Amino acid sequence: MAKELTSRAENYAQWYNDLVIKADLAENSAVRGCMVIKPYGYAIWEKMQHELDKRFKETGHVNAYFPLFIPKSFLSKEADHVEGFAKECAVVTHYRLKNNPDGSGVVVDPAAKLEEELIVRPTSETIIWNTYKNWIHSYRDLPILCNQWANVVRWEMRTRLFLRTAEFLWQEGHTAHATKEEALEETVKMLNVYADFAENVMAVPVLKGVKTANERFAGALETFCIEALMQDGKALQAGTSHFLGQNFAKAFDVTFMNKENKQELVWATSWGVSTRLMGALIMSHSDDNGLVLPPALAPYQVVIVPIYKNQEQLDAINAKVAELTAQLKAVGISFKYDNDDSKKPGWKFAEYELKGVPVRLAMGARDLENNTVEVARRDTLTKETVSFDNLTEYIQNLLDAIQKNIYQKAVDFRASVTREVNSYEEFKVEIEKGGFLLCHWDGTPETEEKIKEETKATIRCIPLDGDTTPGVCMVTGKPSKQRVVFARAY
RNA sequence: CGGGGUGUAGCGCAGUUGGUAGCGCGCUACGUUCGGGACGUAGAGGCCGCAAGUUCGAGUCUUGUCACCCCGACCA
């Protein structure tokens, strides 16, 4: 991918990790490790939000909003949770500035020091459970199934556009349940929602699995995840769903009276996906010509480019295109008719390829004569001339075909770099090639840690629907219940 | 915080032994073009990251400083 660039392409694309990912999607901001998401990129994020939200509602969830600031004391109430996040928190210590006495700009007013510092949320478990405490008294108050769309801040030592920015956008679901079974069921249910979204909307195949203790969310008893594989052979954690047990209920003293009139601790889950998914989308499908977007997420699914020599021709094309766009609108296909006179057709072709628009229609004088249109698809870069009659139906089918095709391509790619490895020697060689390695592991954190140190590979997950044939650990020779998934990850 | 690198036009870069700043793209105007990132002509655009120093003279040499990028430690 992205072996070389023409001097022209340089002006339109920024290349990142061998993939076009800044192409009108994002740029670095003036703030360390943060990103500006440009309108085209944000439109993709909005589509993702819409599709996810729809699925959350279908599973009985509602949206709410909780504060950006978390009192420092809240964060220290759950021991594992603090340990996990303490090192990467932005802290608010003052609430006022004043003019610098020496006349050079402003300084922090030392008189305005906060009694208790506020943490900019790295995740909202603590502030939410502090709130839930007041919402929950009886089994009749349960379950609580809330989701919040928000930004969070994690002061990472090293950032990576889309994949690990200091501030990112996400949704975080936080649910409270009367029983362990119900909470576990919720955890798995949301994992399935994420997997469905990734595969059917993003066209990104994912492995569903459970994290090992080492990789578990700070404060969770069990972390479920979906793991995707990028085109460069590295794995990407695309979403997580945590079973939190009663840890946060204990920490924030959230109890309820059950039907037997006994006081019980509440059971919790939390789950989230972030703008990291934008990275997953880009790195799964893009090619040397730019982005390849699945029709389900493309800000516009069809772009129409007129080709003309004079105003008269353009008028004729405008009229013809108006017929088409009315039909597209009627069936809910999103489109853009680009009759901007300041850009040439060739320029537009390249531009919309870079932006990943699934279908491009070109219409010129020749087409008007023949009652045809040229249809180009982004995923295969092929073109054909199609009759103007029944064009809408043709496009509908084509969009479906493209959605399926890019998913299938990703599935095939993943299959081509997923293999079973049985010895540690072989593992050390194979891991250099990237991809998922299915190996036996003795289940101990020590062995996992040793492998990580020696090869930089981590256990991405213990797959939920993997082969459960037992074997022996490739490192220690001790018994193993099933193969787990190793990879180098982002 | 360690190791490496880079700061020169909006973007990407060149700049020789120190002599007063250039290329490509983009931008503006006009004309010809328009079915795969057009071409010609004429333009506009720079405190050479910042600060000291050496020198008749610094983009270039010295010292300091700041910022950003890459590789580690950390992590979704």
Q: How would you describe this structure in keywords?
A:
490 residues, 29 strands, 5-stranded mixed sheet, BirA Bifunctional Protein, domain 2, RNA-binding, 3 domains, 11-stranded mixed sheet, Translation Initiation Factor IF3
Provide a descriptive summary of the structure in words.
It is a single chain. This protein is an alpha+beta fold. It folds into three domains: 9-89 and 124-285, BirA Bifunctional Protein, domain 2, CATH 3.30.930; 302-414, Anticodon-binding domain (Rossmann fold, 3-Layer(aba) Sandwich); 418-487, C-terminal domain of ProRS (Translation Initiation Factor IF3, 2-Layer Sandwich), CATH 3.30.110. It is built from 13 helices and 29 strands. The strands form eight sheets. Strands 5-11-12-18-15-14-13-26-29-25-24 form an eleven-stranded mixed beta sheet, sandwiched between helices. Strand 14 (222-229) and strand 15 (235-245) form a beta hairpin. It is globular, with a radius of gyration of 26 Å. The relative contact order is 0.11. Residues 1-22 have low confidence and may be disordered. The structure holds one RNA strand of 76 nucleotides.
Give the helix/strand layout.
Elements: E1 15-16, E2 19-20, E3 26-28, E4 35-37, H1 39-58, E5 62-63, E6 69-71, H2 72-75, H3 79-85, E7 91-94, E8 97-99, E9 106-108, E10 113-120, H4 125-135, E11 144-153, E12 167-177, H5 180-201, E13 207-210, E14 222-229, E15 235-245, H6 247-252, E16 255-257, E17 263-265, E18 267-274, H7 276-285, E19 302-306, H8 311-331, E20 335-337, H9 345-354, E21 359-363, H10 365-370, E22 372-377, E23 382-387, H11 391-416, E24 418-420, H12 424-430, E25 436-440, H13 445-455, E26 458-463, E27 471-472, E28 479-480, E29 483-487
Parallel strand pairs: 5-11, 19-20, 19-21, 24-25
Antiparallel strand pairs: 1-2, 3-4, 6-10, 7-10, 8-9, 11-12, 12-18, 13-14, 13-26, 14-15, 15-18, 16-17, 21-22, 22-23, 25-29, 26-29, 27-28
The structure holds one RNA strand of 76 nucleotides.
